[in-house]
Amino acid sequence: MNRTTFASILQEHFTLNLPDYLATLRQMVEINSFTANAAGVNELGQVTATLFAQLGFKAEFVQSAMPNYGKHLVLTRNGRTNQTIGLVSHLDTVFPAEEEIRNNFHWREEGDLIYGPGTVDIKGGTVLIYMMLDALSTHAPEQFEAINWVILIDAAEEAEAEDFGQLCIDRLEGPDTLACLIFEGGSKVDDTYQVVVARKGMAVFQVITEGRSSHAGSFHPNGANAVVQMAHTILKLSAMTDYSRDVTVNVGTMRGGVVTNRVPHEAESWLEMRTFRPEVYDETVNKILALDGEADVVSSADGFACTVDVNLYRKTPPWARNEATDRLFELWREAGADLGFTVLPEERGGLSDGNHFWQRIPSLDGLGPSGGNAHCSERSEDGSKDQEFALVSSFVPKATLNTMAVLRLIGAFNGSA
């Protein structure tokens, strides 16, 4: 198989069939699949299963561990060899149906931009998986039929449910698995593409402060103000942000008190911490937990002290730079060079399903189409707000890049130019 000739064949195939691929994307985008809309998530799962059935994939639906969410979709096509490649996407978005209606957020084409919920995060990624496999089945059937393909599509990725990661490990881990490829949106500037080789980890904490209430006018000195104690604690937390070490500590919510004429006796905050390096991650988790019990607000009347209770709610460790991911990146870099593209590694602050299994399965991320404004549904006349979109011009080159890299991965070219 000649690399140059085959790349031209792929580009022609993708260009010719792009209108049909985009029609499929539109069908997916027009289904509201907000994570909490289990019916919509499952409807999209059925549409996706029907799509891939055309390529010989068998569908299995696995209920999310969260009973109010939808069903994960597992699509499999057995090959002639034991070699396995996993492909990961997700069904859900962050947009409730009423938000889509309120912001007039729907499929909308403007030049090279296609707006709509999930266009880039991540329904466009699912379509890109289909494009790649469709081209392989048509133009490289021997290679396509040799591989065990396992497509795993998460029902609740946006809610950060963790059971899907274990599902991926159960279905993919083993010596015959070449890679798990994740089709979150990828960055593109001109002919330079970025694929994701590392992601920050995240830890979520709850902080509760308790004090003593009192009348704000007559007996203010008797009170121990839990909101003031929370403010002191929040300042300590915020000071742990260190951009030089890629550490962010973000206090996202705070509530406390009931009325203004009462010294508040309780307050609650939720926060998250993110960073790339495992050792910095562990260090910062411990620093946050060390604030447990560290109170400094007391009653002026008798010294009654507030309390501070810090609870670690959830940990998602970093996807650190590692040899297995870097080996996959090198294949994408080489494939890009053949196509005249520059492919660069990206270390991304957001999480993906890959955070949960990269240590067990060689993984690469950011293989979906390019776009922008993920998780955004608002737009304004002055352009200061805009909605999620995918770039039409990114689908053909990204599909070509991924397909050529996968053929390198399975050894199809054997050094041929």
Structure commentary:
The chain is elongated. It folds into 2 domains: about 5-200 and about 320-410, Zn peptidases (Aminopeptidase), CATH 3.40.630.10; about 200-315, Alpha-Beta Plaits (2-Layer Sandwich), CATH 3.30.70. A hairpin with a 7-residue loop joins strand 1 and strand 2. The strands form 5 sheets. A 6-stranded mixed β-sheet has the order 1-2-6-3-7-17, with helices on both faces. The model has no long low-confidence stretch (mean pLDDT about 95). It contains 10 helices and 19 strands. With about 425 residues, the protein is of the alpha+beta class.
CATH architecture type of the largest domain: 3-Layer(aba) Sandwich
Helix-strand pattern: HHEEEHEEHHEHEEEEEHEEEHEHEEEEH
Structural category is alpha+beta
Radius of gyration from the CA trace? Answer: 25 Å
Q: How can the largest sheet be summarized?
A: 6 strands, mixed
Q: Percent of residues in beta strands?
A: 25-35%
- Parts with pLDDT < 50 across at least 5 consecutive residues: none
Overall domain count: 2
- Work out the helix count: 10
What is the CATH class name of the largest domain?
Alpha Beta
The total of beta strands comes to 19
CATH homologous group name of the largest domain: Zn peptidases
Backbone shape: elongated
CATH topology of the largest domain: Aminopeptidase
Q: Which sequence of strands runs across the widest sheet?
A: 1-2-6-3-7-17
- Terminal-residue CA separation: 9 Å
Percent helix, as a range, is 25-40%
